[in-house]
Design a protein that fits this description.
The chain is α+β, with helices and mostly antiparallel strands.
């Protein structure tokens, strides 16, 4: 019985490994992050003119070649703001910044905000949020 259960477990794990994508560690030293991703990331840079100067908006994108993949696109974006343009001790300004970021994401894809909550990461404030769009077939998180 134990041998049969062990073989069944091994078969299940091997089957899962055959259909699951191989997740790789992707590191961005400039962006100061690392993530697990099921394939190669492509980097795109987009300079954006703002009131505080030109911001370089960086996006890393992985698009699945499988049409029936659980997730077709993986994307992470960031931009570095000039020093002292957003003061972390100005809680109202930081709060407005995060609220505007979420609102802009919703509007940019004509989506629906599913949830948004305040978080803290390494003593820094942040937001965790999800926007569904494309009739619920896609999401931004």
């Amino acid at each position: 019985m134990r041998k049969t259960a062990g073989l069944l477990l091994l078969f299940s794990l091997l089957s899962l490994a055959m259909v699951s994508p191989k997740w790789e560690l992707f590191k961005s030293f400039d962006g100061k992050f690392k993530i697990l991703i099921p394939g190669e990331m492509v980097k795109k840079e987009n300079p954006i003119e703002t009131k505080i100067g030109t911001l370089n908006y960086i996006t890393f994108l992985h698009q699945s070649e499988e049409k029936d993949a659980e997730n077709l696109v993986y994307m992470i974006s960031y931009c570095d703001y000039p020093e002292y343009s957003i003061h972390s001790d100005s809680t109202e300004l930081v709060k407005d910044f995060f609220e505007t970021t979420v609102e802009t994401a919703v509007e940019s894809v004509d989506g629906e905000l599913r949830y948004a909550s305040e978080i803290t990461l390494d003593d820094y404030p942040g937001r965790l949020w999800r926007v569904d769009y494309n009739e619920g077939k896609a999401l931004i998180k």
